[in-house]
Give the backbone structure.
Amino acid sequence: MKLPPRLRQAAFSLAEVMVAVGIFGIMASASIVALNQMNNRAFISRCQTGASTVAQNQIDLILSDMPFNPQKNQVPPELTIGTTTDGTASNPTVPVYTDPRTGGIVIRGWMTTTIADTATTVSGVALSVYRVSVTVSYKFRGKSYAVTMNSMRCSDI
């Protein structure tokens, strides 16, 4: 049976179909790679948010622990001058990211808190002003990340 010329020209050739399938495959693979990269960056962002939250909680504890009056030897243990470390790079103990579905800790890190007296004086009067620096570090896929927050705390009186 012969097809009229109008119907013969309306069909795609095998070569045209193969080119279209090839282009579709390239676009699909490129989009899968892009989605994988976006997912990886989103996880890194969630870890940064978690590390920031841990650092902010430590800063909040230092700023709110009472009473703080070094002239009367009223210094909470959290405000002891020096450097304290929770965990290490080889033994991370600080939970940075917890999986919301399972509740399991996925990423652990370590926290370094440094407290220093600024030795500030005004008109010959010594002020008790402490400088606080909190750094939360963690590793993800062999790469190190860190969040640092700084604050100041002066005497309550």
